[in-house]
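Lay summary. Proteins are chains of building blocks that fold into shapes, and those shapes determine what they do. In this project we predict the shape from the chain. Here is one chain we studied, written as its sequence of building blocks.
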Amino acid sequence: MLTPPSALEALLFASGEAMEKRTVSKLLDVSEEDLSAIILVLSEILTERGITLIETETKLELRTAPQAYEIVKTLRESEFSRDLGKAGLETLAIIIYRKGATRGEIDWIRGVNSSATVRSLSLRGLIEGKEDSVDRRRIRYRATPDALAYLGVSKSEDLPQYTEFSQALRETETEQDTNNS
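And here is the predicted shape, written in a compact code that computers can read:
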């Protein structure tokens, strides 16, 4: 069984983003006063680690510790210096040819988990995520102008066989929707 500070750390790590304190309290089944005590303990535990607990009046989030800035900067610079690779180009193509895609849609088309690839493209500024208008729980990724510049085109339609690939993707989606019904 996890200690309350360890449970809080696991919860925030798994979330990967800021969480409302009231949500955390409910998930950990603790009062707001007890949560405050748990936050203090976890903050103390993390002082010697590479991550830190960020706390606002209403939210909590795990982030990289300021002391780790240089090593994280080196990591990010190495990510940017590498080629996109096959996975990056596939993912970028899916997003562009579909005029946007969620990570689940990208995973389904590629047949593999694309989390790291989506993250890399996002860090490079080649894609951006916005709330999906159909399902607000998901993020829909779109190509940025930098992505088109990276590919050497001024608009998506200038990509090779854009019309044919876009049409094929739409037909595949329609066929998949029919099979799932």
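What the prediction tells us: The longest strand covers residues 59-64.
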